[in-house]
Amino acid sequence: MFDLLAGLNPQQIEAVTAKPGPTLIIAGPGSGKTRVLTHRIAHLIQQGTPPFKIMAVTFTNKAAKEMRERVERLLSGELRGLTIGTFHSICARILRREAARLNVTHESSSKP
Question: Per-residue DSSP letters for 66-106?
């Protein structure tokens, strides 16, 4: 098993090992935010949290793809049920899934 804390500084270790639940990570450019978030996700899964109970939200598709790939590398495999995406993609997925319960219908965006 890979040591997820190796090479992290004390603040990063604190963020990675924070108790399970919503966690807000605020840090500047180049401070290792993506590394901390991906290691935290891997840590939670190693500690027994099912992947389907984890959601990581980011701003760009590129960042979401990078996060998913890093977590898969850390844990050596595809993680079914893990939600990593942009605000837009995650909200769109939720709305599509819950549309019937919300009595919402899809309308084509090509109509004026």
Answer: HHHHHHHHHHTS--TT-EEEEHHHHHHHHHHHHHHHHT---
Which residue, 61, 14, 79, is CA-closest to 40?
A: 14
Check if the beta carbon of residue 59 is closer than 8 Å to that of residue 30. Answer: no
- The two tokens of residue 9 are 């500084």
Q: What are phi and psi of 72, to 5 degrees?
A: -60, -40
C-beta separation of 54 from 45 below 8 A: yes
| For the chain, domain boundaries | 10-102
**Mean pLDDT computed over every residue of the chain:** 87
Question: Any idea which architecture 10-102 has in CATH?
Answer: 3-Layer(aba) Sandwich (3.40)
- Own/partner long-range contacts of 98-101 (Cβ < 8 Å, ≥24 apart): none
pLDDT tens per residue, range 46-58: 999 999 999 999 8
